[in-house]
Amino acid sequence: xxxxxxxxxxxLHGEVEISGSKNAALPIxxxxxxxxxxxxxxxVPDLSDTRFMAQILASLGAxxxxxxxxxxxxxxxxxxxxxxxxxxxxxGSICIMGPLLGxxxxxxxxLPGGCIIGARPINLHLKGFxxxxxxxxxxxxxxxxxxxxxxxxxxxxxxxxxSTVLGTANVMxxxxxxxxxxxxxxxxxxxxxxxLAAFLKAMGAKISGAGSPTITITGVKKLHSAExxxxxxxxxxxxxxxxxxxxxGEITLKNAxxxxxxxxIDKLTEANVSVKRHGDDLMVRRKGRLKSVDVTTLPHSGFxxxxxxxxxxxxxxxxxxxxxxxxxxxxxxxxxxxLARLGADIEIEGPSAIVKGGKPLSGAPVMASDLRxxxxxxxxxxxxxxxxxxxxxxxxxxxxxxxxxxxxKLGARIKRVEEK
Length: 420
Ligand code: EPU
Description:
Bound molecules: uridine-diphosphate-2(N-acetylglucosaminyl) butyric acid
CATH superfamily of the largest domain: Enolpyruvate transferase domain
Oligomer: single chain
């Protein structure tokens, strides 16, 4: 297994190119299953998660080529069965279910199970499929969805924690090939849902309202080939912005969408970090001493749960008390005990973490537990005095394209080593 070895205390400077969005690319890749014609997707990040999704699509019968960030996928023939061995490795793979059901009128997909950040149920996905007329059976760890006919209807897809991103994506994909009009109320408004809708529209789907809580889909008989460029990864952009702030550096995020990052920019500004837009770029600079701020994660356009851990790493450096409340995933505080190993003072009180910031961090060996927790540990390591070894970085490779290479270009002293 590999680790990152980081010699901290070096301010980041320079420019970093933001990759295509992982969480937009994954459902868009799945959407190619809705047609037997070839689709071309550009600006796809080369990550273990996107490669893994490519493998799943191939296992379902699709021809997949991945070269220089461009995917060509053609699902001429398709089988509707996805095995546990594949699905359990990546919860995101559940978004193949919607397209399979839409095109084949049947899907048998293993239940993904929980993961380190929470239970990750799929009840809302299934509620949506059932509303469209599918019969759902759960047996032997698999969900079977079959439908003689899929018929559009109005449904409410809100749950305990608000809207669901992949649930909205899944139902929207099925509905493109259902008869009549489907209205999804309490739909997720995330930019990744908007990007998926853009791709589906390029394939001939009739969709309006994506990006708002009400999405309307008018079913069509068939979808066709399409080309699409994936949006920049707002979570990667936020991660680099926070790393620059944590190291008291100054960087330019090339090809970052400020309109996707409003809540993050707002909180960084409150913490005394300047974020300025120049065309498609964002310039990030710490203005002096960091200020403590309170942060609550919420569905878009609120503060993203995928940036909570990184923001916490930053706020350990801000004198005063910051309260960080996690409203999306119940167990997403795995980074807290690892940040404590670097000297951070954080207490967990129910869904909140109370960060008593301002003490300097010092390097230590730490263990990455999930993708975003790992990013938080890298940020803390970059800001800490001395050497930090972040172990199990395969988590990072799932969602950040060449993070070590990009950080080195910004002046960080970081290298990839074999874990000892
Ligand atoms: N939920 C339900 N029932 C459902 C589905 C979700 O109760 O049927 C709950 C979840 O337990 C959670 C909340 O609703 O409390 C939101 O979950 P959501 O369905 O929106 O999450 P997701 O679609 O499974 C995507 C991203 C996650 C990101 C979340 C929230 C992908 C591949 N994954 O997951 O990304 O945290 O949305 O924004 O798009 C990551 O990239 O590190 C990551 C975990």
